[in-house]
């Protein structure tokens, strides 16, 4: 018993470090004192599920704790279920990269078990994430994958759920007709089968879609039905969503008091549950309602809070709209300097989308702002003259000037810090836009490939698409990362591997796996971009040529630092170059590109060939801007 207690205390200590010094609450502590690890996992999992709708942050910690125990004690039957729930937590906390990471891990495990039902369930959640990211092509792809599996299983409830997910994507595309079509199919089946939670979701989507089409009466009918079901079962997060949707209809109908009541109740639930994206949406809506009512003092705190929340969720268009409302509100409150400041931010970030808004109001605010600035400058000059006269007569004036200089230095430091924050925000926005532009280019290449019949040309287009995806992934990591100037190569290379497996249709199969041996290394964007392109070419060659005719195998990707140098190696256990005539007879563009990029890094590359497999090893000096975490 003593030995078991010591193990438990040691594990509690390790978990405190794992959860950033947040100790488990009493219920978790009691569970951790149990001797049976399987019982610990089940009880922690059940506890996390029970609070997932009310306290997502705590649920996340408990899921991670059960995940750690399951992996440490080798309980593979629990690991994919916990990974699925960690994916859900990431989705609810506006962390799409985390959500996709855990969903894909769970998906791989369930596919190894040939568990089609769970596979379809995860496809539905991945559909939701891509819909949130605005990548509607991928969202529809995964939504229809889920629908196909449910149809194969002849599962009417699953078919209805997939139809509901597809309806949500069509609604996000402002396609109200298709959204209503798919949501109605789901609603009818769920009504007949009495699947109330799913029914409430389909009813909400129908309400949102009918609002989009302008039929407010039908919209309210479906939203009231959705809200009634969710209140009946105390689905807190879902209640907040229904209230937000119904408030949107009331706002369209100019029933502001009713809209405010729903928005404020939705906000309370969203804040308690820790759902950033919903909290931001509702906070901004409340501020907008107050401006529509002409109550600008009441609107101001909500709009200021929304600005902070939007920086966490990083949704550019909503940020532009909020800046415009802040400019309008400060202008109505006669605070023209603040009004002009936020109008400038909205104008800069919105670019061409806001050109029409640069009108007489903007000029008027600017004139009043400049007038106030001139008056302030005159006052400061008069004050300085007075201080100079005092300096001539008294020694104490010197001390006064030193104090004033200190205050000015403090203000200058504060101003520089604020400018640094704004520059960081703008840098993130630039990376976001570059990533979006590369996504558009990738989509154009994908569309073009559908009309190309020549196999060689088709492969060239697909390889170009993968190169664009590799570059786009860099910018995605930069705008979503903590430091917008450096790239976490560990995370980036894993995501690049997943993307390439998906591109070759191998992500959901067991034919080829990629094993990663990656040190925690951070690089500047230029170096990371070159390495990403090199890895893209080497992995592509292995995936294309190493495993023909369905042959299974493994690829090892390693990236580490040794003796002040960075070492990169990609090797496979495939058939080798001697048995791959396609590789020997090809254009070798990819390998030439690797050599050119290696020279750009001033590195040495070496090809290692054996009877079984192919390996490329590169070594280069660390350059300015690289840093490794300890």
Helix content: over 70%
Mean pLDDT: 78
Distance between the termini: 37 Å
Number of strands: 8
Poorly predicted parts: 1-24, 352-367, 624-630
Strand content: 5-15%
- Strand arrangement within the widest β-sheet reads 2-4-5-7-6
Enzyme class: transferase
Protein name: histidine kinase
Keywords: ATP-binding, Kinase, Membrane, Nucleotide-binding, Phosphoprotein, Signal, Transferase, Transmembrane, Transmembrane helix
Pfam families: HATPase_c, HisKA_2, TPR_12
Task: Provide structural commentary.
This protein is α+β, with helices and mostly antiparallel strands and 630 residues long. The chain is built from 25 helices and eight strands. The protein is globular, with a radius of gyration of 29 Å. The two termini are 37 Å apart.
């Amino acid at each position: 018993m003593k030995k078991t207690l010591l193990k438990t205390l040691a594990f509690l200590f390790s978990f405190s470090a794992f959860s950033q010094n947040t100790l488990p609450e009493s219920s978790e502590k009691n569970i951790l004192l149990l001797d049976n690890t399987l019982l610990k996992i089940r009880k922690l999992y059940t506890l996390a599920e029970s609070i997932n709708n009310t306290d997502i942050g705590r649920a996340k910690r408990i899921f991670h704790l059960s995940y750690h125990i399951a992996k440490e004690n080798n309980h593979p039957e629990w690991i994919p279920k916990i990974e699925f729930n960690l994916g859900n937590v990431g989705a609810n906390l506006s962390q799409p990269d985390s959500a996709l990471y855990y969903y894909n891990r769970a998906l791989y495990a369930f596919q190894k078990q040939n568990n089609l039902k769970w596979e379809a369930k995860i496809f539905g959640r991945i559909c939701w994430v891509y819909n949130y990211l605005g990548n509607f092509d991928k969202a529809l792809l995964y939504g229809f994958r889920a629908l196909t599996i449910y149809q194969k299983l002849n599962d009417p409830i699953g078919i209805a759920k997939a139809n509901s997910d597809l309806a949500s994507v069509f609604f996000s595309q402002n396609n109200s007709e298709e959204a209503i079509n798919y949501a109605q199919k789901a609603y009818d089946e769920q009504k007949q089968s009495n699947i109330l939670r799913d029914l409430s979701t389909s009813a909400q989507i129908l309400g949102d879609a009918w609002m989009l089409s302008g039929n407010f009466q039908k919209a309210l009918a479906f939203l009231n039905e959705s809200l009634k079901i969710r209140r009946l079962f105390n689905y807190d997060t879902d209640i907040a969503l229904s209230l937000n949707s119904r408030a949107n209809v009331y706002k369209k109908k100019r029933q502001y008091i009713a809209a405010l009541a729903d928005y404020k109740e939705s906000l309370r639930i969203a804040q308690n549950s820790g759902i950033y994206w919903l909290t931001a949406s509702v906070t901004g809506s409340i501020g907008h309602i107050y401006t529509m009512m002409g109550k600008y003092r009441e609107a101001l705190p909500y709009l200021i809070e929304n600005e902070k929340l939007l920086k966490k969720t990083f949704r550019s268009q909503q940020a532009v709209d909020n800046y415009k409302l802040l400019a309008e509100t400060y202008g109505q409150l006669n605070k023209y300097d603040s009004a002009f400041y936020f109008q400038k931010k909205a104008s800069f970030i919105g670019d061409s989308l806001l050109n029409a808004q640069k009108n007489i109001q903007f000029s008027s605010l600017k004139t009043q702002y400049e007038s106030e600035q001139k008056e302030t400058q005159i006052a400061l000059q008069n004050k300085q003259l007075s201080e100079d006269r005092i300096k001539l007569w008294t020694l104490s004036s010197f001390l006064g000037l030193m104090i004033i200089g200190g205050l000015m230095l403090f203000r200058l430091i504060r101003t520089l810090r604020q400018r640094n924050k704004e520059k960081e925000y703008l840098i993130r926005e630039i990376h976001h836009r570059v990533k979006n532009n590369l996504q558009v280019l990738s989509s154009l290449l994908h569309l073009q490939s559908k009309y190309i019949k020549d196999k060689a040309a088709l492969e060239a287009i697909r390889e170009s698409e993968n190169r664009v995806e590799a570059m786009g992934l860099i910018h995605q990591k930069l705008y979503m990362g903590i430091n917008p100037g450096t790239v976490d190569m560990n995370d980036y290379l894993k995501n690049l591997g997943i993307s390439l497996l998906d591109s070759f249709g191998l992500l959901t199969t067991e034919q080829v796996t990629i094993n990663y041996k990656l040190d925690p290394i951070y690089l500047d964007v230029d170096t990371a971009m070159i390495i990403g392109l090199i890895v893209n070419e080497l992995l592509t060659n292995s995936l294309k040529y190493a495993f023909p005719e369905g042959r299974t195998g493994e690829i090892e990707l390693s990236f580490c630092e040794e003796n002040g140098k960075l070492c990169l190696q990609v090797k496979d256990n495939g058939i080798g170059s001697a048995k791959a005539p396609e590789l020997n007879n090809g254009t070798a563009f990819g390998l030439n590109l690797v050599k050119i990029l290696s020279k750009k890094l001033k590195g040495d590359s070496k090809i290692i060939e054996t009877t079984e497999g192919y390996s490329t090893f590169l070594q280069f000096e660390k350059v300015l801007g690289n840093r490794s975490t300890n």
